Amino acid sequence: MSTKKDPWVARDLTRVAVFAALIVVLGLMGPIPVPGLVPITAQTLGVILAGTVLGWKRGAAAVGVVLILVAIGLPVLAGGGGGFGSFFGATGGYLIGWFFGAAAIGAIAHSGPITWWRVGLGAVVGGMLVIYAFGLPVQSLVAGQPLGVSALQSLAFLPGDIIKVVIATFLTLVLARAYPPAFPDRVRAKKSVPASSAA
User: Fold this and answer.
1) Average pLDDT per consecutive 10 residues, the chain (199 residues; last block may be shorter)
2) Domains of the chain, residue spans
């Protein structure tokens, strides 16, 4: 993460609110059926996009807003879930993982100019590895089963997670070209490298 000052401006609050709303809206969508694979829930896609577009501070803040809404009981999770008890269920670790995952995604994706490999790497590390690192132990504990068993069960969601990483990377690169103001001012000051020429 950069040690340079990264002051927030009024637009940053709007960006955080917009991406928090995006995560909530994606949670209202039902599972997306994929032939031959486990259905995909879209909410994690919003978490990944919050990190890739907003960076580590603002991306984590957007997820934090959603988690606060969950904690106070609003039905903002996929399938209409919500309430403080959500953090103590089998998926509670994944919710906490969203926060740290968004931070990791943003730190990697914004570590230099916006390129496909930085964005993709950030999405994989934060959107998959970090979230699973928090989610699997809690899932294992709540289910009363070995961690290895929980990990094997989660392999069914791997194809959907990879699809979300690809979609988020594509959308981030398109947004960087089509609407740079979506990104924080400090990131826009960096010269973005076209995906075709990124190494």
Assistant:
1) 68 96 90 63 95 97 98 92 93 96 98 96 98 95 93 91 97 96 81 45
2) 10-188
